[in-house]
Structure prediction request, 129 residues.
Amino acid sequence: MRYPGLTLRILGGGQPAMGPGKAALIERIAASGSISAAARDMGMSYRRAWQLVEAINASFTEPVVVTATGGKRGGGASVTAFGLELVTRFHAMEDKASAAIAGDVAQFSRQLVAPPSRQRKPAATRKFR
Prediction:
């Protein structure tokens, strides 16, 4: 069970090599076969997604995402077996970290102020123009 307030980042050479955003990008590329489709799905620019893919590939000893240039059938991208293994291992580490601090997070959460309610007024009491 992953806690929303817990963010795990793995550093390589002082730079984030893997985190939740990069893992999600890799998963979406694997599902869609496209960096641009994955970027759209995540609400980011193609350029930013491409930069992240380059950074991911530069962080590891083997390629994580491989691309094919356009042509008759267009280009595309795929995640290597190595990349899929990295994402699986990353999520396992997130789960372990969450489990290790579950009690602390529960206690800490009880001491947080609840977010303000965002309830809307019933339709009968709202004024329409």
About this structure: The beta strands are 10-12, 15-18, 65-68, 76-79. The two ends are 47 Å apart (CA to CA). The chain has a mean pLDDT of 88. The first helix runs from residue 20 to 32.
